[in-house]
């Protein structure tokens, strides 16, 4: 047809096995982050001992930083 551009096919890079594992790990980690963040908003969290609340809060922070690191790694996959 005239006036219509042919849809360009974008090449999606195939991920290596180790890259797939990074993506899978990031997806699982994201689910755990959401679950822990929700738990922190629940009454059960406030009923915990202060030390336990602090440990879980620390854990959430570490998980978020780890997720950010995995994101940086995955960004590099697309650049190759």
Could you provide a short overview of the structure?
The protein is mainly α.
Description of the molecule:
- This protein has 80 residues and is mainly alpha-helical.
- The chain has a domain at 30-79.
- It is 72% helix and 0% strand.
- It is built from three helices and no strands.
- It has helices spanning 17-40, 43-46, 50-79.
- Helix 1 (17-40) packs antiparallel against helix 3 (50-79).
- The protein is elongated.
- The two termini are 35 Å apart.
- The model has no long low-confidence stretch (mean pLDDT 89).
Task: List the keywords.
single chain; 80 residues; mainly alpha
Number of strands: 0
Give the proportion of residues in helices: over 70%
Reported for the largest beta sheet, the result is: none
Spell the H/E element sequence.
HHH
**Whole-number radius of gyration?**
20 Å
Number of helices: 3
- Strand-pairing-aware structural class: mainly alpha
Blueprint (SSEs and pairs):
Layout: H1 17-40, H2 43-46, H3 50-79
Helix pairs in contact: 1-3
């Amino acid at each position: 047809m005239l006036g219509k551009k042919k849809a360009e096919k974008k090449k999606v890079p195939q991920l290596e096995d180790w890259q797939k594992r990074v993506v899978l790990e990031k997806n699982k980690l994201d689910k755990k982050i959401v679950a822990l963040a929700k738990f922190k908003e629940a009454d059960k969290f406030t009923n915990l001992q202060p030390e336990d609340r602090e440990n879980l809060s620390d854990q959430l922070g570490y998980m978020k930083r780890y997720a950010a690191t995995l994101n940086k790694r995955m960004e590099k996959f697309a650049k190759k």
